[in-house]
Amino acid sequence: MTDNKAYTPDSEPASTQSQPPAYTSSVGSLNDFNSKANLTEKDQLENADYNPFDNRDPNGSSSGGALAHLLKSSLGTGILAMPMAFHNAGLVFGSVMTLIVGFLCTHCVHILVRTSHNICKDAKVPSLGFAETAEKVFEYGPKGIRRYSNFAKQFVDISLMATYYAAACVYMVFIATSFHDVINYDVGLKWDVRIYIAMTVIPCLFIGQIRSLKWLVPFSFMANVFIVVTFAITLYYMFDEPLVYSDKPLIAPAAHIPLFFATVIFAMEGIGAVMPVENSMKKPQQFLGCPGVLNTAMITVVLLYAVIGFFGYVRFGDEVRGSITLNLPEGDWLADCAKLLMAVAILFTYGLQFYVPNEVLWRKIQHKFKPENHNITQILLRTGIILVSGGVAAGIPNLEPFISLVGAVFFSLLGIFVPSFVETVYLWPDRLGWGKWKLIKNILLGIFAILALIAGAAASIDEMINPKTED
């Protein structure tokens, strides 16, 4: 990494010797998940204002394509967990706070993308990923923290890997639980869900070996078809009989509230997909703004989550489970189809979920192995990680608190705390607004993220250790 002492702060006169060198992305193998082309040294040394948007790939995705990708990344297992979130919040509190949390998550994405755009101008590069944005913000930040730029990048990279791996464990539990409920009831078996988790590991071992995004496209296409069909069937069962509101609390007990926040954050946060989608756009200026790609996507997502969460809880009440598909009638062929289709859809999505962190991990460690051993090393590495993931899933087979735990620990940290912290560093010390209101705002966001992390994790772990049988 370049020595940070060579960088010139904004207050000092620039010279060609003190300009940061051309930035080289270390994640080029990730295609759409990473930064695009680098500028030439000549471009880097120009003193004229640099517009990163003018240097994007002209063949990049359209705004409509970016919107589709963002919606796809947000509408997954999270939306199926929203009725459980409302169970832990109550009808009124859940409705209001879902909108508020949705606004906070959207705002944090806004400030992350806006900060990335600004630091791209300073560094004279067309685009930066999440971890690269954190790194560059520290490199161009106050002198006292420049030496932590590599730490910032590694922290975000490792956190993203941990987030994807943890979500992959949730996928395994969801798939196994769906097959467990259908097969055990229809066939009359009494197999423990851990047996199904062990069987789920087998196809994951094969899908997890796919190393090219193009080979994952057919899986993603089929997954999207299955998800749409499952949503349609689920909505049918949600409204197939009169809804009863009178026995549902408006506000749930205070002890359940942390689980609500953790689940909602898990459901809404697609922070890992935001920068790749934005980086892939040929007109990134249309990502923010009004209406903009981000606002359109998040408004759609938040409204869908609120509607599914509200009516799903009203329909199934205290019996609601970590995925609303698991509440569909047992033994009914249409309901069984929905459960199995969703399980297969998540299995097909597992390849993409597993691809991203493995590419980041391999980039960091591939230099430690001889090139002729790369293939076998990758096979063994991926196999080992999947087996460990299966072990974790078998150790925590209860879907509801598992989702809350992942949301509390990883998504509150990456989705709320890091963006607010990165923006503060970038704006420090004299661009924080009147009365330093942006600093105060980001401190409050950081406190909220830490409280959600601690309270949500504690409540989730307690639920795992002492599962409640009745509310």
TrEMBL record:
Specify where it is mainly localized. membrane
Positions with biased composition (Polar residues): 13-38
* Name under which the protein is recorded: Proton-coupled amino acid transporter-like protein CG1139
Q: Topology relative to the membrane, per the entry? A: Multi-pass membrane protein
PANTHER family in the record: AMINO ACID TRANSPORTER, GH04538P
Taxonomic superkingdom = Eukaryota
Q: Which GO terms describe its cellular component?
A: vacuolar membrane
Annotated region (Disordered) at: 1-38
Segments crossing the lipid bilayer: 91-113, 155-179, 191-208, 215-239, 251-275, 287-313, 333-356, 376-396, 402-422, 443-461
* Upper lineage: Eukaryota, Metazoa, Ecdysozoa, Arthropoda, Hexapoda
Q: Which GO terms describe its molecular function?
A: L-amino acid transmembrane transporter activity
Keywords, A to Z?
A: Membrane, Transmembrane, Transmembrane helix
Q: Does the keyword Transmembrane helix apply?
A: yes
